[in-house]
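User: Can you write out an input/output pair for a complex, sequences first and structure second?

Assistant: Here is one pair. Inputs:
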Amino acid sequence: NAGVTQTPKFRVLKTGQSMTLLCAQDMNHEYMYWYRQDPGMGLRLIHYSVGEGTTAKGEVPDGYNVSRLKKQNFLLGLESAAPSQTSVYFCASSYSWTVDSNQPQHFGDGTRLSIL
Amino acid sequence: AQKVTQAQTEISVVEKEDVTLDCVYETRDTTYYLFWYKQPPSGELVFLIRRNSFDEQNEISGRYSWNFQKSTSSFNFTITASQVVDSAVYFCALSTTQGGSEKLVFGKGMKLTVNP
């Protein structure tokens, strides 16, 4: 099983450029999440989705947009990249608590993004 | 508000030593989940354990053990007879159910270095 796949794994952008990070999961999970990891900060939630067509803001949503057009995909967009968005981005997915409260979130391997 | 505190930022031990990683959490929810994740130098997040707020039974799994105490809001993790392969950053996390989605709040992580 592929689990959670993030594309790309690495990317370097110039300030002001835009890009989209793709997260795909093959576990039929309802919930999907985007986190960012910065040194000494742990992981912080950017946006999340509880189902196809729905998204919600997390702890640090500014500068990012997301879309969940298909259940298996969750896209994270940077419209105008800034150096402060240099980070490692992790996507995760999980079942809803009503389906299975014993399963943890499954994480992708991360995308390392540098904004120059 | 949900909060996870990992007071230790970095620990260095010699192989075969026992090491305990501390985690203190804050939440007003009566139902919540606590997690430990491991992030080896390769960068991926590895799920170790999940405990719900109604299950204070401590567990031993091989060289790993967990001590969950609601009275002190602590969820500590112990590695017995540490090995070099245990070198990683360890994250404690707390899940909330706000909005019906299981969102994780992470501690800032603790870097464990096991020296041969």
